[in-house]
Amino acid sequence: YLAYFEEKCPTSKRMTEDAAKVIPGGVQHNLAFNYPFPLAFTKASGAHLQDVDGNTYIDFLQAGGPTVLGSNPEPVRARVLDLLNTCGPCTGLFHEYEMKLARFICDRFSGVEMFRMLGSGTEACMAAVRVARVATKKKNIIKLGGAYHGWSDQLSYGNRIPGIRFLESHGIPMACFKYTQEVFPNDIEALEKQLKRNRLRGGTAAVFMEPMGPESGTRPLDFDYNGQVRDLCTAYGALLVFDEVVTAFRIGVDGAQGYFGITPDLTIFGKVVAGGYPSAGGIGGKADYMACLAGGLGGKKSKKAHVGGTMAANPLSAAAGYHTVKMIEETNACKTAGKAGDRLTQGLQKLIETYGLPFVAYNQGSICHLETVGTMLFDINLFRPWEIPSRIKEIHARKDVMTHMGAAYMAEGLVTLAGSRLYTSAADTDEIIDDALARFE
Ligand code: PMP
C-alpha cells in the first residue's frame, strides 16, 4: 500500500510528515492514524469526503458517529451561521438553546428528567461517576470488560481488551483503579458476585454499560442482559448508567433506552448531541440525582458535585445540537440511516459468502460491524479474562488484519473506522451503498 498511496496521495504524505515534527504522530485524532500514512481531508459533504489530492471517498467513519444526517447538512449550517453572526461562538452565559436542547432530550429519553451539557463524552462519563457517588454515598464503579467510556484515569481500566489493563494507556497508577472493577459482558452471575463483594468495600455507586454492548456492539450482549443488569442495580442500590455516546439519536431519538424499553438512572451523551460540532457531551438523569450539579443554585440540601468547562453548552454547540436532533426527528433520519446500514451489511454478508471469507458483517441500525472470524475482538466474548494472555497473539493479529483491510478499503475510496466499524447516515442513498458494495467487492 505504501507505493500505491504515495502515488495517489503525495500531498497528504508530505503534509502529515511535516505535521509529525510538531504534532505527536502527525495527526491529532486517534481515528486519523490511517495506514500506511494519514490522509489530509479538505471537503466533507453528506456521504462523501475529498482529500487534499482531490481523491473522493465514501465516508463510513462519519467522524466516529456524530453525523447521523451526513456531514455538514445545510439546514443546520444555516442556523449555526445565523447564530454566529448575532452571538458569536461563546459567551459563558445562559443562552436559550441550552434550554431548548435540554427540553428536547428530557421529553424523549425515559431516564432523563434533567440534562447538563459538557465538553465531551469523556467528561460526561467522569461527571456520571461523581453524581453516582454523591447520589448513593457508595464508592465502587463496575464496568463491562473491554468497554470504552472515555480516557479518564478511573474508567480506563481494561479499555478495549478485558483483563489487560495497560494495553491502551500507560501513565495511570494502579491506585486509580482502586474503586473500578470490570466484569465479563453477558455473565450476569459475575456481575452479581462483584456487587456482593463490593458490599464489604464501600458499596457500588454505579454500573456503567453501553446498552448495545462494549464498543458499540463489537461485543454484542444477550438480549436479556440489559434487563438483568437493571434488576441487579435496583436490588443492590447501584445506579445503572447507560453510556449512549454513540447510540443516542443514532438508534433513535429516544436512544437505546427507548429501543430496549429500559430506563437507566443516568445517561451519558456525546457525539450527535452537538450535531458534529465541537463540545459534544452531556449527562442526564433523574432530577434527584442531577440536583448535585446545581452549582450554587437550587440544589436544596443536596451535596454539590463540581463539573465545569469553559466551552460546555456554548451557544454554537447547543444550537447545532438542537437543530440536528430536531431535524433527525422530523426527517426520520435514524430510520433512513438504519436502512442504509441494513443494505450495506446484507451486501457485505453476501460478498463474504460469495468469496468464502472468514469475516462476518452485522449491524444494529446505522452501526455496522465487519469483523474477521477467528481473530476477532468479538470472540473475546467467549474468552475468560485469564485466558486472554495466552491469546494475545491472536488479538494483535486481528488488529493487524483490520489495519491492512482498512488500508485496502481506503485505496478503493472507502473510509471506515479502523477497518472494522462503519457508520451509515441518512445521506447514504441506495445508489451510494451499492457503489460502496462494488468497491468492497
Ligand atoms: N463512551 C463511548 C461509548 C464512546 O464511544 C466514546 C467515544 N468514542 C466516549 C465515551 C468518549 O467520548 P469523547 O470522545 O467525546 O470523549
In short, what is this structure?
This protein has helices spanning 2-8, 10-19, 74-87, 96-106, 121-136, 188-199, 214-217, 225-236, 255-260, 287-290, 315-330, 333-355, 392-411, 430-440, and strands at residues 41-45, 48-51, 56-59, 114-118, 140-144, 180-183, 204-209, 239-243, 266-270, 281-285, 359-364, 367-372, 414-415, 421-423.
Question: Describe it for me?
Answer:
It is built from 14 helices and 14 strands. The strands form 3 sheets. It has a 7-stranded mixed β-sheet with strand order 4-10-9-8-7-5-6, with helices on both faces. A 4-stranded mixed β-sheet has the order 1-2-3-13. It has 2 domains: 2-69 and 332-440, Aspartate Aminotransferase, domain 1, CATH 3.90.1150.10; 74-330, Aspartate Aminotransferase, domain 2 (3-Layer(aba) Sandwich). Helices cover 38% and strands 15% of the residues. By secondary structure, it is of the alpha/beta class. Strand 1 (41-45) and strand 2 form a beta hairpin. It has helices spanning 2-8, 10-19, 74-87, 96-106, 121-136, 188-199, 214-217, 225-236, 255-260, 287-290, 315-330, 333-355, 392-411, 430-440, and strands at 41-45, 48-51, 56-59, 114-118, 140-144, 180-183, 204-209, 239-243, 266-270, 281-285, 359-364, 367-372, 414-415, 421-423. The structure holds 4'-deoxy-4'-aminopyridoxal-5'-phosphate. Residues 64, 120-122, 125, 148-150, 210, 243, 245-246, 270, 280-281 line the site of 4'-deoxy-4'-aminopyridoxal-5'-phosphate (PMP). This is Pyridoxal phosphate-dependent transferase. GO terms for molecular function: pyridoxal phosphate binding; transaminase activity. It comes from Desulfoluna butyratoxydans. InterPro entries: Aminotrans_3, Aminotrans_3_PPA_site, PyrdxlP-dep_Trfase, PyrdxlP-dep_Trfase_major, PyrdxlP-dep_Trfase_small. Keywords: Pyridoxal phosphate, Transferase.
